[in-house]
Amino acid sequence: MKILLIGEFSRLHWTLAEGLRVLGHEVCVASDGGGWGKYPCDILLDRPTDSYKDGFRCLAKILYHLPSFTGFDVVQVIHPYFLRIRAERTLPIYRFLRRHNEKVFLGAFGTDYYYVKACMETNTFRYSDFKIGDVYRNIDFNRIDIEECLHGGVAKANKEIAESCDGIISCLYEYDVSYRPYFPDKTKFIPLPINRSLVTPRVRYVSDTINFFIGIQAAKNELKGTDVMLPVLEALHHKYPDQCTITKVVSVPYDEYQRLLNAADVQLDQLYSYTPSMNSLLAMAKGIVVVGGGEEENYEILGETTLRPIVNVLPDADDVYRKLEELLLHKERISELSAQGIEYVEKYHDHVRVAQQYLDFWASR
Q: What's the pTM?
């Protein structure tokens, strides 16, 4: 198969491409490198800033490469906003891809019209990036996202792409349940891919000091919940200064993030999520215990009844503190959770196994 993957979130498409190549397929990844993450790609369609000049240059790169984005058996776009130009301006490019390739698929991999609609207009979730119970989260990032996703260019592009594409792949419980009411026959849940050959798994045994790791995206601090988790972690360190250390990284490239993560025992991530992210799964593959999104719905969609490697926390500072303190006072749990995390990623997220699931779904449409 000849496959084109356009766009990037947290190395998802590049990792999927690595699995597809192992299985003997020809794959091209075209993306902006995930912005500051600097993830690898075959064709770089970057936009260093949001300036008009950089926007024009990015569009010029896209148009230059567009003739080569033809003749593929499968094209997958990572999001309705799959290029670093305004979402509605991607529609002519999407239509070009539809005309000149065999099949086109949409990734339900991030914040878009259907996810925001589920968060804002239904009681699908007990909590989310946008609402906790019946209380809406009043942060600037959310107001911008809500307007763009529900009423702006993302909404327009998302509706057209979802309705006309050959299939939709969701990578998390949250995205799957957001799309399924509208597209039950064309939505398929497939777990996130992790290239385990790039990591060395090591069960963590901690008898004295726990190294807590927290990665902060400066532009998404409130959205990801690190604005809540970091002060809680600092309060814990103040109470138990000899029993824990904190490794804090802010908006560093992927390779540097991974280097700093390697020494951690416990990672804090995704306060408002039901499910682990790519970064959390990679940490688990290494044997690092994850404190973050691990609700029962995450295990149910996988069919997992035994493993519970994630220390699930509610979007509440007191709950986060209790869970962290419990880990610190019962360090023997870390080795058990560490071993479960390694097994969990091997069982569900191996990038070659996940790539085969993509191939099976693409072929079925």
A: 0.95
Report in angstroms the alpha-carbon separations of 211 from 85, 238, 297, 328, 353.
40, 14, 29, 10, 32
Per the structure block, which two tokens stand in for 49?
Answer: 């800033």
Per-position pLDDT tens, the chain of length 365: 999 999 999 999 999 999 999 999 999 999 998 777 789 999 999 988 888 888 889 999 999 999 999 999 999 999 998 998 888 889 999 999 999 999 999 999 999 999 999 999 999 999 998 999 999 988 877 788 889 999 999 999 999 999 999 999 999 999 999 999 999 999 999 999 999 999 999 999 998 999 999 998 877 788 889 999 999 999 999 999 999 999 999 888 888 888 899 999 999 999 999 999 999 999 999 999 999 999 999 999 999 999 999 999 999 999 999 999 999 999 999 999 999 999 999 999 999 999 999 999 999 99
Angle at 186 (CA atoms; ends 81, 308), nearest 5 degrees: 85
CB 264 within 8 A of CB 288: yes
- Do 206 and 265 lie in one domain? The reply is yes
Question: Per the structure block, which two tokens stand in for 48?
Answer: 């260093």
Same-domain check for residues 180 and 42: yes
Closest-CA residue to 279 (of 210, 343, 213) = 213
208 and 175 in one domain?
no
Domain total of the chain = 2
Structure tokens at 344: 């969990």
Contacts of 319 (CB under 8 A, 6+ apart): 313
